[in-house]
Each structure stands twice: as structure tokens, then as C-alpha cells.
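Researcher: Next entry: Response regulator transcription factor (Candidatus Dechloromonas phosphorivorans).
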Amino acid sequence: MQHWIIDSDPNGLPGWHEAFPGAEIVGAASEMRGLNKPGVIWCRLRAGQILAEVLFGVDFSSGHPVVVLSDEPDEELVMSALSAGAAGCCNSRAAPEVLRQVALAVGNGGLWIGQSLLQRMVGATAKTLGQRPSQARNERWSDKLSDRERQVARLVAGGASNREIAAQLNISERTVKAHMTAIFEKLELRDRLQLSLRINGLQV
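Model: Predicted structure:
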């Protein structure tokens, strides 16, 4: 998988090189090469910069997930990044293993929103369920799926990666991806976050 990192410093940060050896660091989206390969586009947001500035020129329709690397990430920025079309937002100085987890998540069609925002959303889901229990109970998403698809969907809702799901169900990652595609189509959902919210009782 190819990684393109848009940043004004062509040297990049050490953690980026450790996480993604061979990553291409460019000063603008127009300088990226080899976009016919699968990969992830990373855009660094430095302190004081405007989000729209670092996302300028990025083609969100290319099929490559976009992640904002922020020097000062917070929940408001994460939501703004997702609204702009990004698949996630994380600290630009995150540990290499975290960056690889982010790449795996967005590469598999998921979103990366950070632990604190995820917990807040789960809390909001629980609150909504408490206020509208009848609606949650009447939502029969499982009726639309096969037994195996229901297993996969519940594991996704629990935060498992494709690799973890494959190991737990003793199937290949390719089969997991095929199930995910079928689940999204049957439930008319876009990504793993929507699926998690749906299974946990929040209508999307």
C-alpha cells in the first residue's frame, strides 16, 4: 500500500518514516504520483493552519482514504475533517504503530475518530436508546443478513479489525471484506462507523 503525505517539510517526521517506509512526502496534492496504486493520503495540519488550506486540491473521489495529521487534534477538528470528506484525523506525532492502525482502519473502509470522540458517541447512543427504546427494539437490521453476516457485523460493532474477525471466525480477510460489502449493501450503509451505530441501536 502506498502512502502520500502532504506537508510543507519534505523531510517528514521520524514516526512517519518508521510507520511507512517509502512514503512519498509532497508539498501539495498536485505533486502526488502513482495514484493508480491503492493507498492512503495523509494531510498534515500544522498549528495555526486552516483545515481547508491543507485539504486544498485533494481529490476525495479518487478512492483513496484521506487522513488529517494534526499537530493539535481535538474533537471539533475531527468532526470538521470528517465533514470535509476525510476518513479520519489523528495526532501528527502519533506512534508508528498507531499510524499503522489508522492506515489499516481507513484502508478497510472504516473511519478513525479517536478514542475520546468514540466514547462520546457511544454515550450519546446509549442516551438515545434510553429516550427512544421502542424505536431501537423495532430496528430489525439482523433480519436482512445471513447468519455469518450477522456474526461479522456484531464483531465490527465491537471494534474488531478485519484481521481479528478473520481469525475469530476462521475465515480469510478477503472473505471478511466480501461479507462487509454485502452488509453495507443490504443495510444501505456507507462505512463501519455507521454499521456500529446501527447495530448499537442508533438509526442512521
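Model: Note for the record: Residues 115-131 form the longest helix (17 residues).
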